Each structure stands twice: as C-alpha cells, then as structure tokens.
Fold this protein.
Amino acid sequence: MTEARTGKVLIIGSGIGGLSTAIILAKSGFDVTVLEKNRKPGGLLRSFTRDGIGCEVGVHYLGSLGKGQVLRKFFDYLGVTDDIPVSRMGRDGIIDRYLFDDSDKCSFQFDFPAPSPPTKANILPPFCGNFLKYILFFRTRLIRP
C-alpha cells in the first residue's frame, strides 16, 4: 500500500499537462493551485470561433480510446472521459479535411479519404492526387517568377 502524501503544490500553466498533473496530485491528497496567464484555461485544448467557423487550437486526433486501451484508462482515471466529445473518424468517407481560404482570392480543399480497410493500395492514389493538386495550387498562387 502506498503512503498518502499531503502538502501544497503550485502548478504553472493550465494546458493538458498542467491540468492532468493537478488532477492526479489532488486525487493523491495534495492541495493544488493552478496558475494560468491567459483568460481561459486549457492551453492548446482551447478553441475559438472566427467568422462563424470553429477552430480547434490543439489536439485534433486521439487514438487508444477504446475500452481497456491506455488513453481511455488515463481519461477514466482523471474522470474526464464523459466530458470529452469524441466522434469516430471516417464516418463520411473522409478522415481529414484541410481548407485553405484567402477570402475570394483563392481557396482550396484537400480531403484525405478514410478507406475501409485502410491499405497502401487504397490510400496512396487519392492522397497523391490531392497532394499534387495542393502543390500546383500553391505553386501558381504563391511562387512568383
């Protein structure tokens, strides 16, 4: 059996590392205070909205969230599993979408397909085709002779 510890702990920064550490230490009996320089806590876990479009600042993809998997166990221990909105990737046939938009001057969409099952044979052709369009798009708009 491990010995319970007590004491005061100051954590500087409320990003994922600071908040996770604070929860773990508080569960272990420490009196924890978290300081954050920004108006809202979360670090790269925060999001913002600009021109009606929601933008996630940091974490976009998480694996190992199935029952019994390591990240799921960690979230369960922290008590945050039910608070994290999770959606399975690839439901609409796209695993990732990149949007490049500079008002009405230029715009470009790059979709990365979510084949089932994912193999080199069914991922590479669409990816390479989209990547070539991406390169040509930026070459014609950003590189001046």
